[in-house]
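Handout, page 2. Input:
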Amino acid sequence: MALDNRALARVLHEIADALEIKDENAFRIRSYRLSAESVESWGEEVAEMIGKGESLRAIPGVGEGIASKLREIVASGTCAHHQELFSEVPRGLLELLRIPGLGPKTVGLLWRKLGVTSAADLERALAEGRLRSLPGMKDKKEERIRKGLAARRRI
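Output:
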C-alpha cells in the first residue's frame, strides 16, 4: 500500500503533537509541523520521490532527520520515533486533540497535572472542578472545553 502525502503528513503532525504534549523543545515541534504542512501540500507524491531515490531536501522544512523518518515510513509503514513517542504518551491524548477547545499544550497539562488520558477522564475532571487548579484555566476556556465535549458526543 502506497502512502500518500496526507498520510505521511499525518504521522509528522502526530509526532509534533506528542512532542508538544510532552512539553519538548518548541523548535523541534515547529520543525515537524512545518515539514508536515510542506509534505501535505507538495506537488509530487513524496513516496514516489523516495522510491526513485530522489532527495527530499527541496521540500521546505524537510531536513535530513525528517527525510530519514519519511523514508522509514515509506519502507516499513511505521516510524520508530513515532512508536517510541506513543509508548510514552497515551494514545487517548490524540483523541482529546479532536475536541474543540483543546490543543496539545492544554492536553499535555491535563495529562501531567490531572492524569487525564481520555474524554471520560476529562469529563470527570470537569465535573469535579479540577480544571480550575490548572494555570491559565479560566471560565471561558472551561466552557469551550465543555461545549467541545458535548459536540464530540453528538458526532
